[in-house]
Amino acid sequence: MMRLMSDSLRRHAAAVVLAAAAGVLPAAHAQDAPRAAGASPAAPARDVRWVVLHLPGPAWQPGKGLFEQPGVREHVEHYRKLLAAGKLALGGPHLDARGGGMMIPAAGVPEAEIRQFAAEDPAVRSGLLVAEVRPWLIGMRP
């Protein structure tokens, strides 16, 4: 049995298709837009960043503050190199009791480069921090 679309749903679907064709559909919803007949099967562009999440590692000294931990200065200097190269958008520590932090690379920095850079972090190599690299989709913007 075939269901018919309501007029409002049909207008919404048409608006989504037009917005996607014009390139004005937010990236988080572009993959949901129906494709017009004959349209390119290429996936829409999305702003995905390979985010580095840090947590205290086995060498972390409980009871000491973040900036009292041996090796934090070297960790910061390591990421300042990425910043100076224009490849780091944002970064910094979490301020809650769990600690750790997050680094958000600039758009277009490849996963392999971020993984290698995170692995070369002196604080990760020493066990002060553990690093996890995860894909993050920017789904909302002002």
CATH class of the largest domain: Alpha Beta
Count of DSSP E strands?
A: 4
- Average pLDDT works out at 78
Describe the global form. Answer: globular
Instruction: State which percent range the strand residues make up.
Output: 15-25%
Helix content: 25-40%
Q: Output the helix-strand order.
A: HHEHEEHHE
First and last CA, distance: 43 Å
Judged by helices, strands and strand pairing, the structural class is alpha+beta
Spatial strand arrangement across the major sheet: 2-3-1-4
> Please, how many domains?
2
Largest sheet: 4 strands, antiparallel
The CATH superfamily title of the largest domain: Dimeric alpha+beta barrel
CATH fold name of the largest domain, please?
Alpha-Beta Plaits
Q: Identify low-pLDDT runs.
A: 1-41
Concise structural overview:
This protein has 142 residues and is of the alpha+beta class. It contains five helices and four strands; from the N terminus they run H-H-E-H-E-E-H-H-E.
Description:
This protein is of the alpha+beta class. It folds into two domains: 1-43, no CATH class; 48-137, Alpha-Beta Plaits (2-Layer Sandwich), CATH 3.30.70.1060. Helices cover 32% and strands 20% of the residues. The protein contains five helices and four strands, in the order H-H-E-H-E-E-H-H-E. It has helices at 7-22, 27-30, 72-84, 111-119, 122-125; strands at residues 48-56, 88-93, 101-105, 129-137. Strand 2 (88-93) and strand 3 (101-105) form a beta hairpin. The chain is globular and about 45 Å long. It starts with 6 loop residues before the first helix and ends in a 5-residue tail after the last strand. The relative contact order is 0.20.
